[in-house]
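Worked Example 4.2. Read the sequence first, then its structure tokens.
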Amino acid sequence: MQRYYLTWWLWICGVMTVLGNPVDNLLNRIDPGAARKFKTELVKADRDFFELDQEGKRVVVRGNTWVNIASGVNWYLKYYAGVHLTWNQMQAKLPAMLPKVEKKERHETDLTLRYDFNYCTFSYSMAFWDWNRWEKEIDWMALHGVNLPLAIVGEECVWRKMLLRLGYSEEEVGKFIAGPAFLAWWEMNNLEGWGGPLPLSWYDRQEKLQKQILRRMKELGMHPVLPGYCGMVPHDAKERLGLNVAEAGLWNGFQRPANLLPTDKRFREIADIYYEELTRLFGKADYYSMDPFHESNDDSKIDYGRAGQVLMEAMKAVNPKAVWVIQGWTENPRPQMVDGMKKGDLLILDLFSECRPMFGIPSIWRRPEGYKQHNWLFCLLENFGNNVGLHGRMDQLLNNFYSKNDSSLFTLHSSLKGIGFTMEGSENNPVMFELMSELPWRPEKFTKEEWIRGYVKARYGKEDEDVLKAWDILIHSIYNCPAGNNQQGPHESIFCGRPTLHNFQASSWSKMKNYYDPDDTKAAAQLMVKAADRFRGNNNFEYDLVDICRQALADQARVQYLQTITDFNAFRKKAFDKDAKRFLEMLLLQDKLLGTRKEFRLGRWLEDARSCSTLPAEQDLYEWNARVQITTWGNRTCANEGGLRDYAHKEWNGLLKDFYFVRWKTYLDGLSAEMEKMTKPRPEMLGSGENSNKTAAELFQMALPQDLNIDYYALEEPWTLRHNPYKAEAEGDPVDVAKEVMDYLKP
């Protein structure tokens, strides 16, 4: 009998959990039992809103959607309780007695759509996430107002079933679909097969994971954006299936899939198969994401107007009310593809609104008429390649966003429906995402100076003058990249680039340009260290302490590098050896500092990859994907000629010591040897007359300092093939090591 009652009680508890208030469940994940301290009320309203109130000992949070209520909870936790929830801290111990809301506070917005994710995020950040990590991310989204998340986990499952129905074999499917760390670029029609073939167990894992993700998103009232069909087919589809295709050629050395021409008689048949399999696995959606002809030149064979029409028709056949979501990026959306579409059928993500907006205000990508009749979202890109580094455009973000209040621009902004987070990588620069998430709820423009004071108090739970001074320096320097600087993401660390005599940016397309004094980040780090003992054990503070000191050390290392190269060019052998030694010491000290936080450890990334399977062969494949993505990115051709190497570079513990250090030591030792060689006579040259026929210009060039010719790929590839373990757990005390770093940087 006791067993019966226990079973019945557990069943009742389970039902209550499933059917319960989703925000209460979220609160209890933050802090078990926290929901009892709040009263959440779902209220009908004409405008999106949340409201904070008090009822006895309980804080009341009202809103017209669960996500808006969650936004209100987050607002309360930050600005009343001094609790900041973000990627490095999604759980917290709330006060036994919550601070009272003395006066009702209400926030409203007409920006009803709040989007999240870039296709790249799913590979640069989420490639190996499990449900435990995804559950935290969905909580983060709800707390930050997201109600329109891109949901493309498991898209490869749909494609596998579709291709099998079209007659492709499992082996052929494996050659087409990319590996887990490269799925985003396969999904965007950039490459085929790299990183694969995927084991069948991967498809089972991702199908189950996507269903869990969708279930939770829908419980919270979100509208997941599922991947639609944009005409991609394998590059051999012409020969294999007799289809009429536009050849896509190469993307940075990779074979691109082909584009099925919209006039092909089988276009609708293939699109219907895709949507049938998508719906069977993951249901229907109100929004579908499609980015046809992504990062490609115009092709005279393609009727872009017809292409847009057939893509829209295939999507509407699944759900007549569905909206097509498309990225505003470089040439897309092509006017000839979307000009004839009805208002409301298309939602455009202005992907880089804080730097290169297309919606009509000045920028290098400005479209004078904006997006015409189409609805669009103001988006924050912030990060490329998920590179590690402090970075932001605070003034640009505020100025561009609040241009919506300019009456002279009303027509351009009348179709603005919300905001979006479109970062290539997440879990970095939380200050910028916190700022962005609050913009819809703040109708009047404000200054970064007044906002940062509230942020710092919420972030660390109390005010501190040294910390405020540190952040004041940061928001006026590294977090204030100015208009006209179009660099893609943070200033790249000197440690992470392939060494040369002229190192500046690490990746091929970063477009870096100096805009802040490296002594500013050093000064901010010194102030953080000065306050550090007062914040020992404060998780958010210690994360920021490490990140800011990391930035300061990287910036000073760039200065050290320039001095070292000056020594070489001046032929100061002793000074060179001393300065090269110091540069390498700084690199290893950076490795030690980053080892004190799990967020900056290579081991976390590799352990997540291997945890996707229990079979050694599959674990090795996933680890290889993880190692390649953050280093060479592709094979020799794609890494070197394609320019992809180091695009996703990371300042991470373990990677610095075992990958970047090897490159730099090889290079600096080579320069030292070159100087040594120049000081000694070369018997083989005596009387040879080897240079007797050289021109004056050739002899002059020979007299200049010569760079080394090093086959870096040959140094790099062996590391990608290894399986030596790296620990994910933090080692060392972040405060103590931060002090060590700043002591090292003293004059």
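Now turn to a second chain, presented in exactly the same format:
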Amino acid sequence: MNRFYGFDLGDAESAVTRLDSTKDLIPEVLNINEAKSFITAYALLKDGKLLIGEGACYNPDAIKRKERFKSRFLIDPEALSDVKSFASGVLGELYLSGQLIQGEDCCFYIGCPAGWDRVAREEYRMIFEKTGYPPAKIISESRAALVSACQSKHLQVGYDILNKPVLVVDIGSSTTDFAYINGGREVELKTGGEVFLGGGIMDEILLEESIKRSPNEKKIRNIFKESEPWQSYCDFAARRLKEKYFSDEDYWKHNTCTQPVTIPHGLIPVKLTLTINEEIADQLFNQKVERLENKSFKEVFLDSLKQAKEAITDRQPELIFLTGGVSKMPVIRTWCRQAFPDAVVISSSEPEFSVASGLAWCGKIDEELRQFKEEISRLVESSQVERIVESHINELYHDAVESMVEPILEHVALPITERWRSGSIEKLAEIDAIMEKEIDSYLHTDEARQLLMKPVSKWLKTVSYELEEFTMPICVKHNVPYSALSLNSYLSMSDIEINVEAKSLFALKEITWLIDATVSIVIGLLCGGGGIALVANGLPGIVAGAVVSLLILALGKEKMQEMLLNSRIPKPVRLMIPKSHLKARLDVISSEVKNSLYAKLEQEKNEEITERLVKEISLQIETCLSKMAEVVEIPLG
């Protein structure tokens, strides 16, 4: 899929853009009835023809005429059919002009206010599907505006905007939409995402002031009572005049800014001269309006900024991105700086098309992400991760042994030998089963997990660097920062959730060496082996020592050890072995035990256990890669 359409269906005006990823660098704003920004209105004529845009506002043959229906979508059931009729008209114009071709492989990205929930968005999407649109997706208008900012070259913010907390303020004709986006993720504000304040209120004030100053005031008001379309047309003309004034406010403060409108009425047309000057411009912001509960536009807008600021519980925005035609007014930036003095306020060169352009870009990015995720999925489904893990598994064994042997000797082996010494374990032969159970319990503790944290993290870095040889080309191909798929960028264990259990590394079949070593230490001490003779004070010790010596001479050392394993050695004899001697002996053999385990794990390890461990770790790394791929770029759902 190469062609992506963005449809910004506004309450007062709409725009459609198209991006062909094979040749376009930026979305093209399409002409609908020879207008890039066209009035959101439709009219059904006597002959059944459907008109949209400016012509629908005053055509005398209209038997049905509707406008400003999007703002009523959530509260008025009839607005659904109005949206459908207008959308149908836009689709027809696209096909008629050849800007959209029947059956082409394309999709539409259609904007909606950030405050709409999933149910409302799906209901909205279904309208376009039933109308016959190509596959459509509903995107938050604020999010589309942010995508537009990210892609806009002149803003020079690019992907950096995704790393900053941003407040998007989309000022439409009927509503002002606030969205807080941190790290590319949109956070719903307590304002509900939508404030019913728009530039349309200013248009109404400007039109009303012009009517009051007109010598034809009475005639004009009668015409408006009889013909709502002509009132809408004059309202639209007032909007254009307002935009003209604020596009160069300094110039028009000292010059006349007017727009004559001729209204057909009987034999003699009625003329209305729309006028705006510095005094009227001030009224647009400061005049109290009944619809705003007797507050002015300025008061409501500043109050909305305050509510948005209070609703942000995370970092306050570093960027304020303005979009919508009203955002061109310099005073809007001033108010935003007052509310957020530490933020940078930015907007595009054509803020009235920011949303429509961003929607088309969303389509391209979504397709790019789809291809990107497919390639990551293929990497995950291949055996490449397993091969990398397996090639480094011995390093993990080695580092784990280095970290775990001494703690196991200290926290398991030593306490068990002490229990035998104190008489709670009758025979040395019983140590085998007890030791196995105790080691199993210890390897499941948080302490064992914490001990493994450092070597596993270190090991993962090595694996990650090798894995990047495969992920980096995919990122480069799809213009994704390669760090987005770098495990090293996320090597906080709590973040990436790659868990390696101590028991997985130290399977009980693999640690008979530890049990044997512990029992041998005790027997060695009893038999005087390893250079440490059985030393005891007093007659009992001498007698015991003599008895042991005689038994060694009579039976030989190996037979003696076997006998000791199954005999109930008197507690006084056991206590002759000082606890410090046991600990000292364990410390002496620590490195010896490690070397023994290295050899056992690397040369004689159970293949089934290693295979399982490789699979488990690889699966976790693959899951992590998939999760990271999901959050690459701005989430578009």
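Notes for the reader: The chain has a mean pLDDT of 77. Residues 184 and 631 are 9 Å apart (CA to CA).
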